[in-house]
Amino acid sequence: MKTNKLLLSLTSTLAALSMNAMAADAIKIGFLTTLSGPASAPGIDQSDAFKLALKVLGGKLGGLPAEMISVDDQFSPDAAKQGADRLLRRDKVDVLTGVIYSNVLLAVTPAAIANKTIVLSSNAGPASIAGKDCSPYFFSVSWQNDAPHEAGGKYMLDKGYKRVALIAPNYPAGKDAATGFKRFYKNELALEIYPKLGQLDFAAEIAQLRAANVDAIYYFLPGGMGVNFTKQYSASGLDPNIVRVFQGYDADQQMLTVGDLINGVVNTGQWSSDMDNAANKLFVTEFTKAYGRVPSTYASQAWDAAYLLDAAVRNIGGKIEDRDAFIAAIKEAKGFKSVRGDFRFARNHFPIQSQYARVVTKMPDGKYLNKLVGVVLKDHSDAYIDQCAMK
Amino acid sequence: MGTLLLEQTLNGLQFSVTLFLIAAGLTLVFGVMNFVNLAHGSLFMVGAYFAAWFAGMSGSFWIGLLCALPATALVGLVVEVLVLRRLYAKDHMVHVLATFALILIFNDLVRIVWGPLPLPLDLPSGLAGAIQLGPVPYSSFRLVIMLSGVLVGLLLWLLVTRTRMGMWVRAGANNREMAIAMGVNVKWLYTAVFTFGTVLSALAGVMLGPFVAVESGMGDGVLILAFVVVVIGGIGSVLGAAAGALIVGVVDTLGRTALPALLSAALPPTIATSLGSALGSMMIYLVMVVVLFWRPSGLFPANS
Amino acid sequence: MLTKKSQSALVWIVLFVALACFPWLATWAGQDFYIGVVIRIMIFAIVASSLNLILGYGGMVSFGHAAFFGLGAYAASIAVVHGANNVWLVWTLAAVVGGISALAVGFVATRTRGAYFIMITLAMGQLFYFLFVGLRQYGGDDGLRMPTRPALGFGLDIASESVFYAVVLIWTLLMHLLLARLVRSRFGLALEAVRENESRMGAIGYSTRQYRVIAFAVAGVMAGVAGALLAMHNQFVSPKMLHWSQSGTLMIMVALGGMGRLHGGFLGAAVFLLLEEVLSSYFSYWHIFVGAILLLVVMVSPDGLAGLGRLFKRKAATPVDEGHAP
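Above: the input entities. Below: the structure tokens describing the complete assembly.
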């Protein structure tokens, strides 16, 4: 009995080590995202969307039965690393996706790439991975971190606002947002404010805005900070004609909480729930039916991740064990109908896509919709491509 | 420039009063029962959640407020009776661990009950706008917050110095055994004080709810602020909490507004911005470290 | 019958042998992922034990201990990023950084008592946290990658997991021995006496503050080395490692395991991390369980899980042993 077991484990180990492993009969997706703690709302959105996409696709991606293994990264790069290790080594996933936050992504990507596992980012897109650290095993189906800010800058430039204020938290990501914004808004800013992370009270900042007589404000205040600022801004009696612009993914979430207060506020992003294409219509209908809420940008990215994999796996006839072919199929994205419309990858494996302006609009039924109002940056690729050595 | 100065002074003051409101419940529990209550932030959060829930159901902020206070008080009472009262006699380590456990529990509990997204809590309709204070438009609700903070301060001071209950409280704080010997029912006194402290924390949560995101973990940042205020001012005294709130409020507002300007006048711009921003986040912690190094028991401790 | 001391030594020898054999067992069973889990447990065992020194033995409720852990990790990562390729140098650097920062924090904090002490340690921890969040050149909030593990020498490849496991195991053993020697020495006994009755110790001529500050510094050195090991394990460090919530987690570990008990840190780290590993796969609200368990432990057995044994023994003992007076 014991020798049989030993023989069995020996032979299976040998088999696994052999170069041409058996053809895969299923595809394993490691879904590493933030499911606990205060920062979990985007992660839960993505998890919901991905699960739904798998269900709509009949539990299969490209004909292969798909197994989704969820792991909570607890918003901690250290915990995420262990969770990722579990997915890579114990569960032996083929694709790692679902990561929301840049610090988590940066912590887990190197090990995944070393393990020849494909990382399909459904949200975070740090500059280093778009540029000098680009890798064939990494794909982003979402956006590069600077994109919404670049779009915000271009929007303000196009609209001709003269006195513009910029608000971003005082840490490198905030500074990056400012850099992205200024890359396209070439005029001098009337005011730049950098509140501290997690700041509660914005009265002093609002006073500065009032004194600077601005006609437009671009702000990047992720999570709770954004809600705090919005609530206090609206109560402060600032000129209602001041134009506010921020990011689409935040707008989608804030609409559910402080919709009234951001009615009419412009936000930028690569997708909108009212986009007119078949894939998006299916997505929005199914999501609303399943979860009773309009999907967010985060959800759209997770849905697209599933459908992209579906197309790629189908194109290689299910032979995902041939990693190079799998990568080429993802890169080509043939037959992939994104909820954003047409989709293609740049050579650094980040999307080339348009950035749109959307406006939070109150609908007759009292709910809010982020309405598409125009293109800001057409077929836009990121600023870090030149630093990437891939062809 | 003059209007900006006026507005910022008002803001500094307003922030100070807000801080006092946040810290009031903590200083009471701390001072009377010598109990390190890390769950203070969680009770703040529960107060805000109840307010959002009741206000959402009834459509009125004031009903939300009126219902949230007793609801949170009940939660505080249950926690005190079931868990905390066994721990008063033990040392601070145990208090810290037990109340830290409560933070973990409450943060997940509110997510289970109300979901991961922030709850909407709107300003009361009459007070949603701004009124003119001379040249400066000022948020009416902020003035109401200031008013509540001042009222709470007066109430606490009156309670502690002028009433029988207050006398018991001070007796209990100064000498527990003596108080027991004199016939004060210390066990129920502590329960009453803790529940009252809970109501104060909840009140702060309800009043701030319309201005901040009502979400899981919202109490954590507030907790730290409250502790900084109480510790700088001196544990156990209402005057201490007021002093601490004033210092933190003014320093923080100055740090965000005047400091960057001051630094750029003296240093090259790149260094000024990075130094200014780095200092901004650390400001109140630096102040606390400096104050405690100079006065290890805070500025106006109750039991000196 | 074995004496208590050799009983305890036997337990440790068995444990050490079990840990040493574990990687082979895991690989044979095809579960080599768990080698990484045990490495992490051992690293946290070291830092939890270092906190146990000041919290359990020293009676000082430090809410900023994660800072020394994180500082050690950053010292190691920054050194490697700047070209350091000698693990001995990196470990020394991490130990020194951890020790000196702990000395500074301890010196300032020990001027205060009670709740003030708790707050000042928290504040100083947060100062370090915000420092690293703001440091763009070392990643800021995004964290810093350690591109390769610094070399060990002796022809051993530290990038190999089994070698790294052995390294961490040896460090864990060494740190445990250090702690054991320290707490049984005159220094350790004096430290505990200072915890029990500071005024008395002061009255009989002990410089109580000195004992506290030295304990802090030693704990800082241990935490710094543990931090360097975690940075090498993950090949990544982020400011989250210095946040007060991480300090809270460390405190939970010590409380669970047993404050002031020699294996409290080890036991607590193992139990907590295993709970986390198991619970988080099933339940996204697992923090509630951790909180509930912590509450239970604090209320029922203030000496943590290590003290449970004693609790049962006491309850099982017949009244004759106690020698009650009627």
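Note for the figure: Chain A touches chain C at residues 9, 12-13, 35-37, 40, 71-72, 74, 76-79, 81-83, 85-86, 89-90, 102-103, 106-107, 110-111, 126, 170-173, 175, 197 (CB under 8 Å).
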